[in-house]
Amino acid sequence: MKSIFIKIATCIIIGILTVSILYGLSDKLTHQKNSFYRYFPPHPAVYNKAIDLKFNSYYFAGVSRDKVYLSNLTAPLHLLEIDPITADTNHYTIKINDKNPLKFSSSARVSILSPYFYISDGITPRILRGTLGQWTAKRIMYDSAYFNDAKPIGAKSFVLRSISAKTNENILGKEFSVKPHVFLKDKLLEKQGDGIFSADGILRYNKDLSKIIYLYHYRNEYMVIDTSLNLLHKGHTIDTNTIAKVKIASIESNHTKTISEPPVVINKNSYTYGNYLFVHSGLMAKNERKETFQETSVIDVYNIISDTYEFSIYIYPYRKQKLKRFIITDKYLMGIHNEYLVIYDLNPKWFKELKPKSKINQDILSR
Prior knowledge:
The protein is mainly β. 11% of the residues lie in helices and 43% in strands. The longest helix is centred in the N-terminal third of the chain and has 24 residues, at 2-25.
């Protein structure tokens, strides 16, 4: 178990450092014109308001009804509640109900899946749960698996990305409160060369569809997976990069691997809501101006039911700060621009399937 802990910790640390550095280094590669085109409809997302967060370390924990919740990378037990209509804010400190004092690592994250909030820490490992509005959390899991990402998919179940003890590669799994507690699904993540960086990606849960979405960072592919970890179908982003362009080097001193050259980052970030997958792309299209692409952040919108590209959105900097993180609701695109939360109204003309027809969706996704 100790060796797994070391591998998880090393992967998280190396991952944070390499991704942060290489996003900057790969500028030349991602600003080359590629052989695909984007469609930009008029005004799909319109600026509404901005809120000064005072700090640049906030991230989105999730949404519940008419509120959005942010937590802080440097203060894992802090929650900021925001009403996007009135811009009213409330600050909460999560209390821990445990017989022993608990310390959380820098990888600890807060997630919202109404009516609960969760604290997950893959280094410890540890998962706690509390009820929204009460702000006291306690353990709910057996805490038997180390992980580098986790998303709640039910009251007492999580989808995990971990490191396989057999292959030392990224693997998806599920953790729940009853035996066997952890189920790991081999070969769900498809490696190309190495099984760590080539399979690196963004793990999301779509509550509307009860489906897991995994979007690869370095290739034009995403997977739609059910909550039992069965692959339903694969989708593709509009670029043509089917093979991850990642070069790996070994670090002999600690028997780990790292990225040796700046990779081509296809998909920087994502969020899923309704029938849609929103992708913060790292590549410039053939019909884009280099100056515009460099200045803005491009969000490509996909329909994950029909596996079709819909259109793209330019998100412009706010006070010279580019988009860093984003989240989607049925009315808003909300983005963090360093220390500012910027709220954009979504034009219903272009977003007709933010509230899916569940029966039709389930029939199609079960194919």
